[in-house]
Amino acid sequence: MNLETLKEQIYYQIQLVNKDLYTKFEFCVGSSPSRTEILKFLYENGKIAQMSLQKKLNIDKAAITRHLKQLEASNYIERTKEDKDQRVTWVELTSSTKEEIDYLFKQRERFLSEILADFSYEQLKVFYEMLNTMQDNILKTTK
């Protein structure tokens, strides 16, 4: 296999892994990776303005709104408008979600343990560094 073919195979494999990872994560954990990260952030940091949450998690405006609507419909979070400025929406966990979120995090932890079970610590470190390098290269890519 030549270098160009290998690069194409790696790209294709990354696409497959990404698709399968997302699908399996949602099936095993019961929530999408993005919604789980939103809940994790709120759990660790508390009440925050929706726009700030969107920026901190680097999720586009339409997606954050969609995720928050789903979390609100599931009674995980509540959103309230700022009294002095109706353009500001505050987001926080509902008081009844702590046990459910603890369960969600345990499922997430179990999922990660299962998908990374056959890797040594050293392999995981190298893999992490490789992914960071790839992400840096993606961000440097121009038209």
Topology:
Layout: H1 3-29, H2 33-45, E1 48-49, H3 50-57, H4 61-73, E2 77-81, E3 89-93, H5 98-115, H6 121-140
Antiparallel strand pairs: 1-3, 2-3
Keywords: DNA-binding, Transcription, Transcription regulation
Domain HTH marR-type: 7-136
Protein name: MarR family transcriptional regulator
Structure described in brief:
By secondary structure, the chain is mainly alpha-helical. The protein has one domain (3-140): Orthogonal Bundle (Arc Repressor Mutant, subunit A), CATH 1.10.10. The protein is 69% helix and 8% strand.
Descriptive report:
By secondary structure, the chain is mainly alpha-helical. The protein has a single domain (3-140), classed as Arc Repressor Mutant, subunit A (Orthogonal Bundle), CATH 1.10.10.10. Helix content is 69%, strand content 8%. It is built from six helices and three strands; from the N terminus they run ααβααββαα. Helix 2 (33-45) crosses helix 5. It is globular and about 60 Å long. The two termini are 28 Å apart. This is MarR family transcriptional regulator. Residues 7-136 form the HTH marR-type domain. Keywords: DNA-binding, Transcription, Transcription regulation.
Shape: globular
Summarize the helix and strand pattern as letters: HHEHHEEHH
- What is the subunit organization of this protein? single chain
* Count of runs of 4 or more consecutive helical residues: 6
Helical amount among residues, as a percent range? Answer: 55-70%
Q: Looking at CATH, which topology would you report?
A: Arc Repressor Mutant, subunit A
Organism: Paenibacillus zeirhizosphaerae
Domain HTH marR-type: 7-136
InterPro entries: ArsR-like_HTH, HTH_MarR-typ, WH-like_DNA-bd_sf, WH_DNA-bd_sf
Protein name: MarR family transcriptional regulator
